[in-house]
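Technical annex, item 7. During the second reporting period the consortium partners agreed on a shared format for inverse folding records so that results from different sites could be compared directly. Each record opens with the tokenized structure and is followed by the designed sequence. A conforming record, contributed by the partner at site C, is shown below for reference.
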């Protein structure tokens, strides 16, 4: 290779390496805002769950992440907008919880009890956040949309459980899709409409008893005493 050819080759090689580095650097930079935004959402959800919406400020969120309030406002215009994003993330996490495999050798009624136990644990952990949906009209509108998203996914999980229960002759239901939808949407929206900010344990006990009675009535459970086992453990 001639000297000139060698210089051209080296120049091209260096240029390609530089482009490669710049490309990876741009990818890394473009990813950082998304990561920071997600950190703000997760921190906000944690604080809303601990303190409630009204008692959480953007300053609280910024302090938790050791960042400035200005950085929070770079990604979100208001606390309400952060709450909306946190609600979407909360719904996604809730769906992940209810889609945990329950095992093929487990009876339908045990699957239902395990599913409700998982949901109760998740709701209890984030109770203040649940209650926050009723604190102002904006949150109420956000709630309706998010709850429908969760209900859609929960219906998909419950239908095969009820179908299995009918085959096992544990449940008696002739219109499974509509019955499951009625049960799921009705109870999810009822829970979030009435959820109080005080006496939470008493409310959970009352609501789960109500839920149990409704499930037994709609699906005509053969052994009603088995419904509700382990929900509050």
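Designed sequence (site C submission):
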């Amino acid at each position: 290779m001639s000297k000139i050819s060698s210089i051209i080759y080296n120049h091209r090689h260096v240029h390609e390496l530089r482009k490669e580095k710049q490309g990876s650097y741009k990818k890394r930079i473009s990813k950082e805002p998304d990561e920071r935004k997600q950190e703000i959402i997760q921190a906000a959800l944690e604080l809303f769950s601990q303190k409630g919406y009204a008692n959480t400020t953007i300053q609280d969120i910024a302090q938790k992440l050791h960042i400035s309030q200005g950085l929070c406002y770079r990604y979100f215009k208001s606390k309400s907008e952060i709450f909306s994003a946190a609600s979407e993330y909360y719904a996604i996490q809730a769906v992940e919880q209810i889609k945990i495999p329950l095992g093929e050798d487990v009876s339908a009624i045990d699957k239902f009890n395990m599913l409700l136990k998982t949901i109760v644990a998740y709701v209890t952990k984030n109770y203040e956040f649940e209650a926050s949906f009723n604190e102002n009209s904006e949150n109420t509108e956000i709630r309706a949309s998010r709850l429908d998203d969760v209900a859609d996914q929960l219906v998909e999980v419950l239908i095969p459980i009820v179908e299995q229960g009918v085959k096992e002759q544990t449940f008696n239901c002739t219109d499974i899709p509509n019955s499951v939808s009625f049960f799921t949407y009705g109870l999810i929206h009822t829970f979030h409409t009435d959820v109080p900010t005080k006496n939470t344990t008493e409310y959970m006990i009352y609501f789960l008893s109500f839920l149990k009675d409704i499930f037994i009535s709609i699906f005509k459970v053969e052994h009603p005493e088995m419904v509700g086992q382990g929900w509050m453990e």
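The chain has two domains: 3-75, 84-226. The radius of gyration is 25 Å. All partners now use this format for quarterly exchanges.
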